[in-house]
Specification:
There is one protein chain. The chain is of the alpha/beta class and 318 residues long. The protein contains twelve helices and 13 strands. The strands form three sheets. It has a six-stranded mixed beta sheet, sandwiched between helices. Strands 11-12-10-13 form a four-stranded antiparallel beta sheet, covered by helices on one side. Strands 2-1-4 form a three-stranded antiparallel beta sheet, covered by helices on one side. The chain is globular, with a radius of gyration of 23 Å.
Length: 318
């Protein structure tokens, strides 16, 4: 089975993008007789083996874009190519796996029975025991799906997505309903999957997951892409860092400091937000009695908040 899958992978040009989105537009009724553009002239290309987070506030267009890449919805204009063919054909060939926010599971079946039944629907698939091990399901194999927690059901959906040994895995809020420990376990398993060269696209509200796992981040707002690049570079677009010191400073001492955008005092600890961290840290070390200095770059969450807020400010009032 693995040999057959390897041969099908060879049919696809490894140098070509795994997914190409060209000038895609998708609208929906707005409720007042007009239409709203859920996806507005989006152009994106995802390389084979790339791990990308697609982020954005509610209504940004993330889920609509994912649905079109999966072939569950269709662009009104523009085109989408997945692994050298249409989204629908790629999915039918077992080249695409998906873990979505919702998905029907038969509650009376056991976990293992569910995996076995779905495996029988695929012409070529990985061994049932292998995908159950990858998804961490062996300990609950005999449990009925209805008695599984939300996180356990997500792990089951993950196993089902892995069955055809897909070249592309798409995840929409994959850890919704999981506790912190389960989320960490899930992403450990996803790292192992990514290490095989599988292309992974995922949308999440947990920005720390994107920061820790995604090599690339695409930020959407009102149907458009407002930031796209390596996750570290997108994070740096927040334009600031945090410098924390231990210092018994007076208000006038703080007022004389260069490059301070904002500061917060908690006892003898002061945290400065700055757009010139090196210069501020150098000044604190050489010109003041501050000590215990630490410098932390802006988080992806801060970049997310600033970039989306800036985009909202640019939008015309309706």
């Amino acid at each position: 089975m693995n040999t057959q899958r390897t041969e099908s992978r060879a049919e696809y040009d490894d140098a070509a993008p795994a997914v190409t989105v060209r000038e895609v537009i998708r609208t929906f009724p707005s409720g007042d007789g007009g239409r709203v553009r859920a996806v507005d002239s989006v152009n994106l290309s995802f390389a084979k083996g790339e791990v990308t987070a697609i982020l954005g506030p509610n209504g940004a267009g993330k889920t609509t874009l994912i649905d079109m890449i999966l072939g569950l919805n269709h662009p009104e204009s523009g085109s989408i190519e997945v692994l050298g063919t249409t989204p629908k054909k790629a999915a039918q060939a077992g080249k695409v796996g998906a873990l979505l926010q919702t998905g029907g599971l038969l509650l009376d079946l056991t976990v293992k029975e569910t995996v076995q039944i779905i495996a029988a629907l695929h012409k070529n698939h990985l061994p049932v025991d292998e995908v159950m091990a990858t998804a961490g399901l062996h300990s609950i194999a005999s449990r009925t799906v209805g008695k599984c927690s939300g996180g356990q059901q997500q792990r089951l959906r993950f196993a089902l997505a892995l069955l055809p040994q897909p070249e592309l895995i798409i995840l929409d809020e994959p850890t919704a309903g999981m506790d912190v420990a389960a989320r960490h376990e899930f992403w450990d398993r996803m790292r192992d999957t990514a290490a095989t060269g599988t292309t992974i696209l995922f949308a999440t509200h947990y920005l720390e997951e994107a920061e820790q796992f995604a090599r690339r981040t695409v930020l959407m707002h009102s149907g458009t892409v407002i930031a796209d690049g390596p996750t570290d570079e997108v994070r740096q677009q927040a334009g600031a860092a945090h410098v924390t010191v231990t210092w018994a400073a007076s208000p006038s001492d703080i007022q004389r400091l260069p490059h301070v955008l904002h500061h917060e005092v908690r006892g003898s600890t002061i945290t400065f937000r700055t757009d010139h961290a090196d210069e501020l840290a150098r000044h604190l070390l050489t010109q003041t009695e501050a000590h215990g200095i630490t410098v932390r770059p802006a988080s992806l969450e801060e970049a997310f908040m600033q970039l989306t807020a800036a985009q909202t400010d640019k939008e015309p009032t309706r």
